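An example makes the point: we let one protein speak, the chain in one-letter code, the fold tokenised, and here it is:
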Amino acid sequence: MKKYFDVMRRCPLFAGIAEEDMESLLSCLNAKEIKVKKGAVIFHAGDRPDYVGIVLQGNAHVVQEDYWGNRTILTDVQEGDMFGEAFSCGEVAALPVSVIAQEEGVFLLVDSRRILTSCSSACIFHARLIRNLMKVIANKNILLTRKMEHITKRTTKEKVLSYLSACAIAKGSNSFTISFNRQEFADYLSVERSALSNTLCKMRDDGIIQFDKNKFVLMKTPQ
């Protein structure tokens, strides 16, 4: 697990905790490392939310499916990102989402009860962990609010422009790469893939954007 300490230090849950303290902290949290293949389900919808996950290598999507199997991507998690923390802290009976690995990867599972409850040895890290966890949950709420800003736009074009604009602002450049393929992009924006593809091609023809797979360049102000 030591080989991933640099990644763990980037995780906001461990902010302010020295590397030399990580090993004892992970033991206190009953953390376990798992290796998964592409497409593996790390958390299943319906599972008890007993663990908080951290991406050590690879990436994953947090997805929600309706009764008929229609899938919506809620968020993409990359190395150093957390997932499942809100459901663990909220003490929901069962997870309403699944977390699916998008490539072969390594993940850290942390017993959420160990984060929220001080251990018998009065571990000095718990107060900081709880503060860090509260900050993570607050930031996740901000991200979900931003997603709502995208998907509540009236048309597919407006949804695409809202998302791409946010990406450009975040990157500080009109050229950037998104973390979704075309189907995943459609799922994230809650639109049909064909409608998304048609919209992107029309925007390209109008000189608004250029793209190559998941690489985008914003060209001009849309009319």
User: Anything to note?
Assistant: DSSP finds eight helices and eleven strands in the chain. The chain has a mean pLDDT of 88. Residues 153-218 form a domain with the Arc Repressor Mutant, subunit A fold (CATH 1.10.10.10). The CA atoms of residues 75 and 94 lie 19 Å apart.
